[in-house]
User: What shape does this take?
Amino acid sequence: MIVVTMEHVIKRKPNILASLIKKTASLLMEISHFYSFFFGTPKEQKSIVFYSERRGHYPYFDGIINELRGKYKQPLSYVTSDSNDPILNAREHGIKPFYFRGLLPIFFSLVKCRVFVMTLTDLNKFYLKRSIHKVHYVYVFHSLVSTHMGFRPGSYDYYDSLLCPGPQQLKEIRKYEKIHKLPRKQLIKAGYYRLERLYDEYRRYKREPRPDVKGAVLIAPSWGDKNILESCGEHLIEILLDANYYVIVRPHSETVKKHPELVESLRKSYGGNPHFALEVLSHSNEPLLKADVLISDYSGIALSYAFGTERPVLFLDVPKKIKNPRYTDLDIPPIELSIRSKIGVVLSPDRLEEIPKAIAALLKDAQKYKGRIAQLRNEYVYAFGKSSRISAQHIMNVYHSKDKKNHL
Assistant: This one.
């Protein structure tokens, strides 16, 4: 037994060494970037800081950054916690990138800038705290879902401004502030750039015809217990393939991280099928553009897909994704629940066999849904097509406010 163990260790040595080298290189890069940010970067360059948890989050900032750089010629810093983020190797004029992961809590507590822009919820709730300096924190929504059911209580309490995508989120935040007697934040009627980007891409998209299938179906659920892939994923895929649909599966990034065995099982079972595609950690909108119908649960992708392509969604009524058990205190139905029957149909996971028939009905009524969804988008989304301009203007207003000298 000792011999087996020793052999195992010997075999693993190259992997252990490679991992150690990688971690050491990452730490050295962080230290270099830490010194560069605090001691080698002009104040003007770091007066506005964007923070991204991972590389896939840049598209949420893209429109705002282009507006800041194009219209206002404003230099800025971009911090990422993903060592593979392309921004680190890009040479974007006026954008200085930095990488922090292990040193991120220290960076957060010491950063001295005028405006800090991010998509991360729960600021000051866990290990990432507000700076010891006076900094204005701006939150960019990364989804169109409601603020109360799918997020922890107080997820937005420590931001100064929220760039609200629509009236639903603004109403929820204001009521939460009133109930908990919190100071009123600046709530900007900003809209949602990621949706505008998808809408523009879809209008230009040229779909390749697939005469050998009835249509393309995208399965893109949320993450957490009992989501579609974990509760009935393989059975659902089998039903759709048997019904002659082209099936695209796009697991949530958290599912990929926490349940890699599930993703690998799907790859082994269906990877060789020409009518199946598995999109893992894809940051492209291509799967949404290809799909004739989306199957989802409570994910924000359902709203983006419907409002961005004006096509219907089939919702599987799996158990709700609830991260705030007291979300009903607001007495405001979450949008991810209230809008489902307006932009598609809702089916119980006990009725999976009915899905091909339901999809056929959605495809038949596609034009009816197109008009209805366009009207709902006007109702639920602010300033469609103008979000980047509004958001950038707000950031610059904060930057030029009277107490600017206290922040630099």
Remarks:
- Residues 262 and 268 are 10 Å apart (CA to CA).
- Confidence is low (pLDDT under 50) at residues 1-6, 404-408.
- The first helix runs from residue 2 to 40.
- The longest strand covers residues 48-52.
